[in-house]
Amino acid sequence: MVFANWLFLLCSLKIAMPQNAIQEYFDSVAAHYKRGNATEHTYRGDLQKLIEAIVKGIAVTNEPKRIDCGAPDYILTKGEIPVGYIEAGKGHYIFGD
User: Which ranges constitute the DSSP H helices of 36-76?
Assistant: First the structure.
């Protein structure tokens, strides 16, 4: 579900998606799923790697410290500047200025 939301976002932004990164993501997610004991957090590292492979120059932090508007699952930064936040389990996304 998390990937589907990101796929929609990336397609709407017309960001080129490297096929090897996507295949690695699917393979890793499938391996976790097959074990039968995965939770939302199990897949977080996979999504972090995928985003960083697709959006060059962006650093992704999983479970960053709380900010004024709450506790996003991820924060996307370019240098020291936050450029986006992701709430992975809720099926929506919010981009910063």
Answer: 44-54
Give the separation between CA 88 and CA 23, rounded to whole angstroms. Answer: 20
pLDDT at 34: 92
pLDDT attached to residue 58: 87
Reading the block at residue 75, the tokens are 């924060």
Q: Give the Cα separation of 4 and 24 in Å (integer).
A: 15
Domains of the chain: total? 1
pTM for this predicted structure: 0.69
Q: Which domain holds residue 51?
A: 2-95
Helices assigned H by DSSP within the chain: 2-13, 19-35, 44-54
β-pairing verdict for 92-95 and 74-78:
unpaired
Nearest C-alpha neighbor of 75 from the set 89, 95, 57: 95
What is the tens place of the pLDDT at every residue in 3-25?
445 555 555 555 566 778 888 98
